[in-house]
């Protein structure tokens, strides 16, 4: 297992190259075991919506953030267009739903009512689970379940 400081150091090394070393990043994220004392200073909440709290800007090729949801908050349906997202559950549970991409005649997911989208998968992830999302034709929404708050 590695510490948050080690994770940041190793991610900076992993992102020195222009091409993503998927297996290395996945391994690093998997080997980080959540330690509240290391990330609690970045866990800032809002009763209005989830928050994105910067931990490290990386080397211009990635951002390491702590996302915080209050009980029963969620994020809107969105895509990770042209990006890779590795999400580690630090505490609590995340309920994630993935949807089929809207038909080609629609310019974006926001033009499509939620009733028109087809849910492909619905998953619950627990503490220390790693979630990977690639921006290729995937829409997703995350809903957070209670944790240490």
From TrEMBL:
The keyword Oxidoreductase applies. Pathway: Organosulfur biosynthesis; taurine biosynthesis; hypotaurine from L-cysteine: step 1/2. It catalyses: L-cysteine + O2 = 3-sulfino-L-alanine + H(+). GO terms for molecular function: cysteine dioxygenase activity; ferrous iron binding. It holds the Pfam family CDO_I. Belongs to the cysteine dioxygenase family. This is Cysteine dioxygenase.
């Amino acid at each position: 297992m590695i510490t948050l400081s080690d994770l940041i150091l190793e991610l900076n090394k992993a992102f020195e190259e222009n091409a993503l070393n998927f297996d290395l990043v996945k391994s690093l994220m998997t080997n980080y075991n959540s330690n509240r004392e290391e990330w609690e200073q970045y866990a800032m909440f809002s009763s209005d919506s989830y928050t994105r709290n910067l931990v490290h800007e990386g080397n211009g090729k990635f951002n390491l953030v702590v996302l915080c949801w209050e009980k029963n908050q969620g994020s809107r349906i969105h895509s990770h267009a042209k990006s890779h997202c590795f999400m580690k559950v630090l505490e609590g549970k995340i309920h994630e739903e993935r949807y089929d991409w809207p038909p080609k005649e629609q310019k974006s997911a926001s033009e499509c009512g939620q009733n028109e989208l087809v849910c492909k998968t619905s998953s619950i992830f627990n503490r220390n689970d790693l979630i990977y999302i690639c921006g290729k034709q995937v829409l997703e929404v995350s809903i957070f379940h209670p944790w240490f708050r």
